[in-house]
Amino acid sequence: MFKKHFGEIILFVVTFIAASGWFFSKNALSGFPPIGFMGVRFLLAAAIMLPFSYQQLKTIDKTQFKSSAITGGTYGIYIICWVLGLAFSTVFGEGAFLVSLAMLISPLLSWLIFKHQPAKIFWIALPIALGGLFCLSMDKGIFHFSLGSSIFLLSSLSGALYFVLNNQYAKQVKLLPLTTIQLAMVGVICSIYSLIMETWTFPIPNSVWIWFFASVLISTNLRFLLQTIGQKHCQIATSSLIMLLEPVWTLLLSIVILGEQLSSIKWLGCSLILGALIIYRLPAIWIRRKSFNR
Question: Full-prediction pTM beyond 0.90?
Fold first, then answer.
């Protein structure tokens, strides 16, 4: 049983680690400036990846490096928006579902930028997701987004742009050098911004360093390793469906840890967004299963 579903189980753990990363990072922000925290985090993550990717890094050409750097820069914008959302939000469940909308925004951006026609199922899932977004925006009968939720929505848009550019420009770059360059780009962009715009307070408490290293070693490096292993042993369509559990875990952890409370209409909004994401992914699973059973 375990061997048969090894990949699915690993990816299930990955979604929980990804959700936990929201809280590791939030606790680390009590001693770090937000953008500076991400700069140090991603530079360290890139340094940890470097010994494993060094030989492959030497083989990539200028075009591949440029593609990796561009997508890494876009990922940096996404990370800046995400961490600012963390800094200005006290609850994460709603934010996690807003960020997950990137999966449905990306086909729309790909269509607008590169003329890639979305699958027909997309046009069914999109209005359902928009309905969920409308429900999440309702607060006591009026249209309203908190500052944190608004930033999370911007994070979703920038994340979608990263997905589109990464899919378009980084297909020919091997995984390890691509990841290392992208991590380094995020670290450099955030560090430069932080040194110019943010104020650092020293000394940083030891408890904050514990959360910092948890976010680096567990949420970044361990998550990347386990996700790579899990996807290797799991069909891509199934893995993409399992990864939808991240906002669910984040919401549940936010309820337990932060005492987040959602109104019935916000619960409906989360459910509609999750339903839209599942609907969008189901045809790929059916196609994969049919081809596998032949």
Answer: no
